[in-house]
Structures are given as C-alpha cells and as structure tokens.
C-alpha cells in the first residue's frame, strides 16, 4: 500500500466508542498521516438544507453512518473457490460433508490456488467492511509458506490479519508436524505490527494425544492462543471419547491449550462442565450462524452460556458478510424466546467483547476518537430518524446492518470508495483461472 493519505470526510455520522456505548456525532472527520487528527461537529439539519459538494481533497459522506471496521473472527479463505465443485459421495451428515467436500478440496490446493482464494476472500471482505481477519487455513499438501502467501495478499490490499494453519492428524503424523512447523516458521519470519499468528488446530476428533502435547509445548513459548473448531457437531464429542477416552474441552485443558487469546469456533454441543472450564480459561467462543444452519449441526442454547465468556462472530468461510452474521445471530437469539430488550443487551455484550478481544492482538484498534488509527467504514445508510447514543442499537440492528458498505478506509487510505475497488474485475479473471485448475484437479481425483 502507498503512504497514508490526508483525507477529510465531510457530513458524516461518526459513531464513536465511549466506554461501553456508541455516541454518534455529526460532522467532519479529518485524517492526517493515517490517524484521526480532528473531528469538527456540525449541524445535521443545516446539512439537510445544503447538500454541499466535496472537492478533490474531501470525501462527502452526505449524511451516511461511519463506524469502526468489522472483524471476522473465524474465516476460511481457502474455501473461496468452492463454488460449483464436482462432489462425489454422500453429504447426508457433517462427517460426510467434511470427507467428501472440504477434505478433498484442501488436499487439492497448491500455493497458486491459495493465493487466488485469499484474493477472493480479501475482495469480499473489503466489500463488506471487514479489514481485520482471523483466518484459519488448510492446504495440507502445500503447507510450507502457505501462511506467508495469505499474508502477502492481505498486505497487498492493506488489511490486517491473524493467521494460523489448521494442524490435523487426519492426513498422517508427518503432515500434522508440518502444520505445527508452519506456525513456528510464520511466527518467526512474518509476524509484525500488521500480522499476528495463532496456533491453528482442526478439531479434537482429528488430533492425537501426541500432537496436542506438542501443541501445548509450543504454545508455552509464544504470546498467542489456539484457533480451533470445538464441538461444531456431535461427532467431535463422540469420536474424541471413542478414540482418546476424553471429551474435547477436557483434552484442551489437559494439554494447557486454553487461554484468553484463544478462539473456540462454533461451540454448539457444549455442556455445563465445558462452559465452566472455558469460563475459567478466559477463552472466547466464536459463533458462525450461517454455516451452522447450512450444515444442519444445530444451535447452542445461548441462555446457558456464562456471561463472562467472551462471544465473537465469524462466517466460517461461507461469505465475508459480517453484518449478515450479526443480524442472523440476533434473530436466532430472539427465536429462542428471548425478549427484545434482552436481545439488545446480548448483541451489545458481543460487540464490546469483540473489541476487547481484538485489542489483545492489536492494541491500536480504533474507537473513532482523535489520535486513533484511521480504520473506518462508511455504510450506505442515512438515518431516517434522529440518531443518538440512546437509540443507536435500534438503528444498528434494523437499519445499518441491512445496508451495504459504501466506502472503506484503512490506515488512512481508501480500500473501497463509493463501492468501487480499483482493479477488481481484472483480479477476478485471474481468480477464475485458478478456480478452473482446481475443478480439473478434483475431476481427475474423482
């Protein structure tokens, strides 16, 4: 990316974070050298009568909402080419979906396909206002340097990333070791102020005692957490007991793999004893509602989850639309019979849980106040009624989340302006060529 520019955003509802509330201020936001230099309040009603035009040095938001960027806490960029693939074999349960789709796909990937998949994921992320990505990667036959390939794509487009490789014993001991080695190699050579690493693990039922023991020893040497699929389906509990005589959460505790920087993705089939262990560890649970519905693996009973467990939201690689995932989770919470006031309280808890979690890795994640990094997004939403800190969440759930992202600024630079990403059409042509190669490879394998 180029050196951060100086930008003035005029006529915006700037939704600042003040402690545990959102306070919208209408006015101009002035960016200098990639940071928020000044915020100049103005009168929204006066603006409605004027509609001033912006010049070349300013960007006119025309009354739209500006918020902090979105964060995807559980992504799978490697899944992005999985559109219209030739699938052979049963897809009637979760294990069959893994065996006949995802585990065939990830074994077919080479580094060029990984690069193309990451580019597609990044384009979709920018379009949906996501500039911070916790990616969980798998390409077991192209492990070495796969994380640096993804990092280079993110860096090229100006995003920040939390990267991990999905260590698993499902392809044998040697490839499991390569997954652990890739974490060590990437952490030593490619992490910096913009990119962090996590120790990636697939799921308990595909991880031997030996591999979990190695993972626990490695984790003691690094200031990071694990990123794992936990009890996404009943099969994780059932097979963990059959193969290793213990439940998934107990196994993670046994090998000291739970800490406050860890992401436990899905967490659908957990029991009270599991929640007690997770609560004590400080680890976060990342819900992925669209993926769970698609795979028919069930939903957690949200009401039994201890309130001190941080809750995050991801997409599990189905898409990059975090706004849709947030709205979906809110509606599912209501579907379970929770009152509207309680649902609003819950989504606010999640919103601030996410801010606290991401700041463990990036302490400079913005709150949209003077001196912050200029990471922000403009939604194509102009409030139809007055907006304030007292009614922000009503606008957020029933208005803002229903509208597309209009523009994205990250570190003081436009990544998308007026819904346009420079060069996107040409990039998608290159992505297609790798997708075609993937199809041909899968056809040969079948």
Q: Tell me the major beta sheet.
A: 8 strands, mixed
Mean pLDDT score: 96
Structural class: alpha/beta
Q: Tell me the CATH topology of the largest domain.
A: TIM Barrel
β-strand number: 17
Task: Kindly provide the name of the CATH class of the largest domain.
Answer: Alpha Beta
Helical fraction: 40-55%
Describe, in plain words, how this protein is organized in 3D:
- The strands form 3 sheets. Strands 1, 2, 3, 4, 5, 15, 16 and 17 form an 8-stranded mixed β-sheet that branches. Strands 10-11-12-13-14 form a 5-stranded parallel β-sheet.
- Helix 5 packs parallel to helix 6 (about 210-220).
- Helix 6 (about 210-220) links the parallel strand 10 (about 200-205) and strand 11.
- It has helices at about 45-50, 95-110, 110-125, 145-155, 175-190, 210-220, 235-245, 250-255, 270-280, 290-295, 320-335, 340-360, 390-400, 425-445, and strands at about 5-20, 20-30, 35-40, 60, 65, 70-75, 130-135, 160-165, 195, 200-205, 225-230, 265, 285, 310-315, 375-380, 405-410, 415.
- The protein has 2 domains: about 5-70 and about 375-415, Roll (Urease, subunit C, domain 1), CATH 2.30.40.10; about 70-360, Alpha-Beta Barrel (TIM Barrel), CATH 3.20.20.140.
- By secondary structure, it is an alpha/beta fold.
- The chain is about 40% helix and about 20% strand.
- It contains 14 helices and 17 strands.
